[in-house]
Amino acid sequence: TLLPSPLLIMVASSRSYADFTPEKVDLHRLEEGPPLTATLTREEGLKYYRTMQTIRRMELKADQLYKQKIIRGFCHLYDGQEACAVGIEGGITLSDHLITAYRAHGYTLTRGGTVREIMAELTGRRGGIAKGKGGSMHMYTKNFYGGNGIVGAQVPLGAGVALACKYLGNDQLCVSLYGDGAANQGQIFETYNMSSLWKLPIIFICENNQYGMGTSVERSSASTEYYKRGDYIPGLRVDGMDVLCVREATKFAADHCRSGKGPILMELQTYRYHGHSMSDPGVSYRTREEIQEVRSKSDPISMLKDRMLSNNMASIEELKEIDIAVRKEIEDAAQFATTDPEPPLDDLCSHIFANDQPFEVRGATPWTKLTSTS
Amino acid sequence: WKFLPSPQRNSGALLAGRPVNVRDALNQAMDEELERDERVFLLGEEVAQYDGAYKVSRGLWKKYGDKRIIDTPITEMGFAGIAVGAAFAGLRPICEFMTWNFSMQAIDQVINSAAKTYYMSAGAQPVPIVFRGPNGSSAGVAAQHSQCFAAWYGHCPGLKVVSPWNSEDARGLLKAAIRDDNPVVFLENELMYGVPFDLSEDVLQKDFVVPIGKAKVERRGTHITLVSHSRCVGFCLDAASVLAKEGVECEVVNLRTIRPLDVDTIEASVMKTGHLVTVEGGWPQYGVGAEICARVMEGPAFNYLDAPAVRVTGVDIPMPYAKILEDHSVPQIKDIIFSVKKVLNM
């Protein structure tokens, strides 16, 4: 079906749910913020739709595989928050850098990973993005530094990456993400301080999904205005369920960084459908009604879909075709992830040191001598 | 062949060299590596404009400026994380802890962010970083400023842990550490900073490195092996001089590296002497000496032991302040002599 592909003016943020009603961008120490209108091309729309749908389906497949005990350990799913990862990537380039915490599958994808290698990592196979050595929380791609398991530790790491960008003079920046739970970590405030002193090109992004594990923001934080917590750092808060809002805010933040003004802080108000992880049903600290309300009123994929349809940017059939293609991609990836062999035992001790001679590693007994290679 | 002890402890170097103290050896090593590779930089508290809390980085800020010698606020967890992130992104940071006691605030970044990342990423993300600073007991600085971290960091795969004794060690190991593409924990000793040693021309070459993971036999002997690291190596040599007068010839092994431990050198020595005493400043439980004894038990050298291997260590208490108490909290030369005689049944 051929459709005209007009440039379209979209209005940012016009939905509400649960506890808050963002109708505009909230600013902190900023005279002006990102534009309240944004242009979405058909091509961009289809790309964002496909990527968000891919993340959604991938996470739901991971849920399935986890319940079948094919994925084990920790598995923190990202469904509901797709607009954040996709919108952020829309505001930067792949030569910029990004680091996040453990809810990282979506970012691994937007930063260049494939569904195949992400899923095979979750199932612990040799074809996994970290060869089965890392698991859900430790996936890396070029200019993507994981995947970090210790709450808050990724934020100073991100500032270090930003320091390298400034040191090397390459006009790149680093996006450093953390959640509402991590936002109270001392090391984040240490990082605010040093990033500001040294004017590092870092965008701090708080993905506020309202709950740090089972603790709501009201119970964890004396101030829930996370975009203001950087104090002397300019901040903005936008609707994290709206991929265009996220993109425009990110572009604005990136310009701020690249112009040498130093750090900036973005709060994205978002929501996760799953519990904290697969071992958390997610309904002991919030109501099913709340989850359902977000799904029906603020789902990021539905919102984009409705906008594209109502503005004649795509047809229902076209989007259905994308859905089918995505489903197939996920099925193929799951097939790979469940049939690829586990890593060879020879790999057990490898990758301890980079660029080193092979060396002996003590096994479980004094007679078990293993070898580590780089 | 007997070792001829010289008043200046020149570690067997018979060539005339200029005496260089450990502080200056570290300073020169950093200077040369900063010059050699633009990606190397130093950060920590007071390293720049103060010339270093212990003057180890004297002159470097003046020479290299703000970009490469960075004063940090007193926020160890934050700046250690920043240093690791910079290493992720291709720089080669030297992260100074004013003393290793303060590294406890940042230990998560050292272990979880630095040591484990190459493994977790299956080789995608190397971490070429050096963490350095003074370790272990000093003089009169009391309990919170006197802990030895050799065993703590030596426990963890993914780290290399070195503990130099003299100026040659300091210079060569620091160069090796900076050139290594992996996280290195570099344990200095404040009381050694001012001690001079002769350095030969070879050692003063710009590309001189001491290989990480190789111990050095500082004194050859036949009756008993003393294995030690850092300042205690000097005590072992002093004890060996005293014992030599009674006809006991000690072989003194300077570990130089805590992890990976050079078990081969230790075993070869024990297989020759049949007796082992380890000497360290740290606490006994789960320490460096404990590891050495366990390894000797598990390997070929056990069959050559004529007596159980024993450890001389710091006393198992937090470090007290009063001088008389502090003196009795750390291994003294007489403790080493006493232990040697006990092991040799003298």
TrEMBL record, chain A:
Molecular function (GO) terms for this protein are: pyruvate dehydrogenase (acetyl-transferring) activity
The protein's annotated catalytic reaction(s) are:
N(6)-[(R)-lipoyl]-L-lysyl-[protein] + pyruvate + H(+) = N(6)-[(R)-S(8)-acetyldihydrolipoyl]-L-lysyl-[protein] + CO2
Please provide the record's keywords in A-Z order. Answer: Carbohydrate metabolism, Glucose metabolism, Oxidoreductase, Pyruvate, Thiamine pyrophosphate, Transit peptide
In which domain of life is the source organism classified? Eukaryota
The reply on keyword Lyase is no
Q: Name what cofactor the protein needs.
A: thiamine diphosphate
Please give one Pfam family short name. E1_dh
What InterPro entries does UniProt report for this protein, alphabetically? DH_E1, PDH_E1_Alpha_Subunit, Pyrv_DH_E1_asu_subgrp-y, THDP-binding
Q: Cross-referenced Gene3D superfamilies, in alphabetical order? A: 3.40.50.970
Q: EC number(s) for this protein? A: 1.2.4.1
Q: Which GO terms describe its biological process?
A: glucose metabolic process; pyruvate decarboxylation to acetyl-CoA
Does the entry feature the keyword Transit peptide, yes or no? Answer: yes
Q: Which positions fall inside the Dehydrogenase E1 component domain?
A: 50-344
Query: Could you describe the subunit structure of this protein?
Result: Heterotetramer of two PDHA2 and two PDHB subunits. The heterotetramer interacts with DLAT, and is part of the multimeric pyruvate dehydrogenase complex that contains multiple copies of pyruvate dehydrogenase (E1), dihydrolipoamide acetyltransferase (DLAT, E2) and lipoamide dehydrogenase (DLD, E3). These subunits are bound to an inner core composed of about 48 DLAT and 12 PDHX molecules.
Q: Known NCBIfam families for this protein?
A: PDH_E1_alph_y (TIGR03182)
Q: What does this protein do?
A: The pyruvate dehydrogenase complex catalyzes the overall conversion of pyruvate to acetyl-CoA and CO(2), and thereby links the glycolytic pathway to the tricarboxylic cycle.
Q: What is this protein called?
A: Pyruvate dehydrogenase E1 component subunit alpha
UniProtKB/TrEMBL annotation, chain B:
Name the domain of life this protein comes from.
Eukaryota
Cofactor(s) listed in the protein's UniProt record: thiamine diphosphate
Give any single GO term for biological process: glucose metabolic process
**Subcellular compartments:** Mitochondrion
Per the record, the major location class is: mitochondrion
List the Gene3D superfamilies hit by this protein, alphabetically: 3.40.50.920, 3.40.50.970
Residue ranges occupied by any Transketolase-like pyrimidine-binding domain in the UniProt entry: 20-195
Entry's CDD domains? TPP_PYR_E1-PDHc-beta_like
Keyword set for this entry? Carbohydrate metabolism, Glucose metabolism, Metal-binding, Mitochondrion, Oxidoreductase, Potassium, Pyruvate, Thiamine pyrophosphate, Transit peptide
Task: State how it assembles.
Answer: Heterotetramer of two PDHA1 and two PDHB subunits. The heterotetramer interacts with DLAT, and is part of the multimeric pyruvate dehydrogenase complex that contains multiple copies of pyruvate dehydrogenase (E1), dihydrolipoamide acetyltransferase (DLAT, E2) and lipoamide dehydrogenase (DLD, E3). These subunits are bound to an inner core composed of about 48 DLAT and 12 PDHX molecules. Interacts with DLAT.
Supply the source organism's classification: Eukaryota, Metazoa, Chordata, Craniata, Vertebrata
Tell me which EC number(s) this protein carries.
1.2.4.1
Q: Write down the top EC class of this protein.
A: oxidoreductase
Catalytic activity annotated for this protein? N(6)-[(R)-lipoyl]-L-lysyl-[protein] + pyruvate + H(+) = N(6)-[(R)-S(8)-acetyldihydrolipoyl]-L-lysyl-[protein] + CO2
Protein name as it appears in the record? Pyruvate dehydrogenase E1 component subunit beta
